[in-house]
Amino acid sequence: MRYSGLRLVAEALRGHRGWKPLWRDPEPQKDYDFVIIGGGHGMATAYYLAKTFGKARIAVLDKGWIGGGNIGRNTTIIRSNYLLPGNEPFYELSMKLWEGLEQEFNFNAMVSQRGIINLIHTDGQRDTYRRRGNAMLLAGADARLLTADEVRERAPFLNFDNPRFPIKGGLMQERAGTARHDAVVWGYARGADMAGVDIIQSCEVTGFEIADGRVTGVETTRGRIGAKTVGVAVAGNSGRVMAMAGMRLPIESHVLQAFVSEGLKPTIPGVITFGAGHFYISQSDKGGLVFGGDIDGYNSYAQRGNLPTVEDVAEGGMALMPMIGRARMLRSWGGVMDMSMDGSPIIDATGIDGLYLNAGWCYGGFKATPASGYCFAHLLATGRPHETAAALRLDRFARGHVIDERGAGAQPNLH
Ligand SMILES: Cc1cc2nc3c(=O)[nH]c(=O)nc-3n(C[C@H](O)[C@H](O)[C@H](O)COP(=O)(O)OP(=O)(O)OC[C@H]3O[C@@H](n4cnc5c(N)ncnc54)[C@H](O)[C@@H]3O)c2cc1C
């Protein structure tokens, strides 16, 4: 069923009795050509495998429900404002895919290019952001340095004269913005299902079947499923899942929290990030202020965080925009982040034939969803990395070719 304005009118006249579930709920088959573990980036991967690369006999297995992982828990920010050549072309590919995504999979994912401003608080920071903006322009992205007055025009409520963190300007990417996170995965799931992909929920992978150095299937809570090729995209569970294949990853799992306030009238013009602390904020279409900050700082597989981080994030918000102290916080939640040693992701083959890995997304995997799915599908379908993901290798840590945007070193808690 294609969605359109006409369809909406027709269904309204029929009392909305014709709508169908977005995807089927099939029993797992005995074997597939491609088994993708994880229904976040994994769903986008299955979509592109079927639609772009013309592959069939594909299943996505998820231990929970579609949208229950980080893909439905993030603060919805999409952007491509990176510095390093290993990252920027990849995230810009993602941005371009976002721009046509809703038309491509015929689903309203509320992609809204309302812009992002990274605030500048020191002269040194201005130099750094100018450099980053130039790198973005060279990679075909958009970037603009704003003066303090230009920032004030857009966001007069910010604390410009804070004596410790005065606002001296900002780096703006106008094409950045937000998308409704769970609608993104629903759109991919619907598109994948229509292309013949089996989406199997409540199906936890509990082991790999490996013979003569080649993966031949997976053990699951719903029985054994044979597979010629297996793609693993399980975010915060990457370490646990790959351990079942005998691999130890350069990844730590940390909890990251997000927060939403009561609904307010339109206030925040786009996405704003504090440059002197870790705090980022936007406003949802329902009016809630959506914001977040640092990871909790200890290893965890729990999808909820602790109060000291709530306080830390609130302090960041108060330093940046004291008026936020008047808003009531409605909800908070957490997700398990796959923090890599250099803060950049991994899309690569493993030492086991037919077994591929997509992981290490840290804070920033939501914006990457389209490119991650596309590039992982490219790798699974052709056995070769996509040109924009060629640097996202698993062995880069051993070779010393890390992609450390933040320059923090091998400190996953700092990226
Ligand atoms: C609070 C928060 C805020 C964030 N904000 C942003 C943001 O604003 N912008 C941005 O770009 N990124 C953001 N991120 C990061 C982004 O959400 C993630 O990097 C990205 O969604 C991770 O990829 P994924 O979608 O594949 O993960 P997930 O959606 O977590 O998918 C992994 C799936 O694997 C399944 N799984 C795990 N183990 C197994 C198993 N053994 N068998 C079967 N299935 C299994 C899980 O159930 C899960 O559904 C945020 C994350 C959080 C938690």
UniProtKB/TrEMBL annotation:
What range(s) does the Rhodanese domain occupy?
Answer: 38-77
The EC number(s) given in the record are 1.5.3.24
Q: Which reaction does it catalyse?
A: sarcosine + O2 + H2O = formaldehyde + glycine + H2O2; sarcosine + (6S)-5,6,7,8-tetrahydrofolate + O2 = (6R)-5,10-methylene-5,6,7,8-tetrahydrofolate + glycine + H2O2
Entry cofactors: FMN; FAD
- Localization annotation: Cytoplasm
Q: Which UniProt keywords apply?
A: Cytoplasm, FAD, Flavoprotein, FMN, Nucleotide-binding, Oxidoreductase
Q: Does the keyword Transmembrane helix apply?
A: no
Classification via PROSITE patterns: RHODANESE_3
Read off the Pfam families from this record: DAO
- Is Transport a UniProt keyword of this protein? no
Q: Which InterPro entries would you find in this protein's record?
A: FAD-dep_OxRdtase, FAD/NAD-bd_sf, Rhodanese-like_dom, SoxB
Q: Which family does it belong to?
A: Belongs to the SoxB family.
Give the protein's recorded name. Answer: Sarcosine oxidase subunit beta
